[in-house]
Write a structure and sequence with these properties.
This protein is of the alpha/beta class. It is built from twelve helices and 18 strands.
């Protein structure tokens, strides 16, 4: 991250203050001192006037230490607000906030593959603005490239077949589904992709092969991949993965019974559930879907949208039997917060195991709006 340290030359022990700030901040982010900074760090009072030349929309103002850097930061942000400049004041750069800054810094200029463009029904969730909010670079790739690189992988087929518990499909269908995985791996290498999303239903229609297995495997390998060209879900998955070091999965809200909400989708990374079965894809009743069984007391649901909005909730997992009439991986969650669903920002939710709400909600301190 590009940083400019500001401190008054008349302050005592200036070198010590600067060293302390660099050591602390440097634990989390790469410090690149710059005259065009992403953040200014005010170590002392008397730095207000010098800060003016660095003011711009999106600038982080970070006070550090107890030598009146905080007071100076308040003055600088008040001035910026009067001038219509949208800065973000981080009054206390604690561990949660610094870990988010670390993620934001890592995302800058990383290439994200948009394979086949977002699905037509994603009238809101397939926008590229959310990628730009995080400094990610969208790379549009034709589905034809996927088709040109299809190749079966018998050894992978044997591995997944043996790892699964119950087989509700033929091994031949599993073998065909490995084609998408091998193709996407070649595309990832060719374009040096950090993550990807794919218009997967076109594969099911045109090739009679789903992308569910491929995305399950990629996510389990740490290559974050979302379905249907949902860029907002992709960014959410990327963010929570890098922040918590947990593998996420995306799902639709499929059913509501009082305060119990059932989420379902036909893919989940195979390293998340306690075990998984091989089933068909729900909507087409063909190819391969992953039927994962999750063993966790709590989960965290979140979604990030454009214009720097996000939502996050925690829930208690409720055991329910598998239902054939919905997507294959299913999880029912009791959510006690009455505000859930009052301000939706898209159709897919992203889920991670455990309670990670405290870490995620620190986005509010960095200019995001929780809805």
């Amino acid at each position: 991250m590009k940083i400019k340290f500001l401190l008054s030359p008349i302050a005592y022990k200036v070198d010590e203050k600067l060293k302390e700030a660099k050591e602390y901040l440097g634990k989390y982010i790469n410090l690149e001192e710059s005259e065009d900074p992403d953040a200014i760090v005010l170590l002392t009072g008397g730095t207000e006037e010098e800060a003016l030349k660095y003011l711009k929309d999106g600038l982080f103002i970070i006070p550090f230490g107890k030598a009146n850097g905080l007071a100076a930061s308040l003055e600088v942000q008040a001035y910026a607000k009067e001038k219509g400049i949208k800065t973000i004041l981080i009054t206390k750069p604690n561990e949660n906030i610094m870990n988010i800054l670390k993620v934001l810094d890592e995302f800058k200029n990383k290439k994200v593959g948009i394979i086949g463009k977002p699905s037509d029904w994603l009238i809101k969730s397939g926008n590229y603005d959310v990628l730009k909010d995080f400094g990610l670079e969208p790379i549009e790739i034709s589905l034809k490239e996927v088709e040109e690189n299809l190749k079966e992988d018998p050894s992978l087929t044997d591995k997944i077949w043996n790892l699964s518990r119950e087989k509700k499909i033929t091994k031949e269908e599993l073998l065909k589904a490995t084609k998408v995985y091998t193709s996407l791996k070649k595309i990832i290498e060719k374009y040096n992709l950090y993550a990807l999303t794919i218009r997967c239903f076109d594969l099911a229609i045109n090739l009679k092969i789903t992308g569910c297995l491929a995305l399950s495997l990629l996510n389990s390998e740490g290559i974050i991949s979302s379905c249907e060209g949902d860029t907002e879900a992709l960014v959410t998955m990327l963010f929570v993965n890098k922040l918590t070091n947990k593998t996420p999965f995306m799902a639709n809200l499929a059913d509501i019974e009082k305060d119990e909400y059932t989420f379902a989708h036909c893919t989940i990374a195979i390293n998340i559930p306690e075990y998984f079965n091989l089933n068909t894809h729900f909507e087409t009743l063909s190819s391969v879907g992953i039927e994962g069984y999750i063993n966790s007391e709590k989960i965290t649901l979140l979604r990030i949208g454009r214009n720097k909005k996000f939502t996050v909730f925690t829930g208690e997992v409720v055991k329910r039997p598998f239902e054939e009439n919905m997507c294959r991986t299913q999880i029912t969650v009791k959510i006690k917060d009455d505000s859930f669903l009052k301000n939706p920002i898209g159709n897919h939710f992203v889920i991670v195991l455990g309670d990670e709400e405290e870490k995620i909600k620190s986005l509010e301190k960095l200019g995001w709006e929780r809805v």
